[in-house]
User: What shape does this take?
Amino acid sequence: MGTVPRRFEILLVPSHVEDRSGATVEDSAVRSAVVEATGQTGASGYPRYVGHGIVADIDPLTRTVEALLVDGSELDYGLTALVSGRTPD
Assistant: This one.
């Protein structure tokens, strides 16, 4: 794997939101957090990122959240974790 991005913005979005009526995914998120690379690999085999109560293993090539804890717990049913299309500074 090449260079791993230093940070991502993770969005927690209700999965029941089918028609956003023009709203962006970012506008539909119930929570967001910028997570920073730890330099470690998570149990999923992907780089681990942490920040603002979120621990995530993210595939940097596909920008897919492969594993996630929110405030120390698994993600609640009905929520989906997405990596924002924006690049945090």
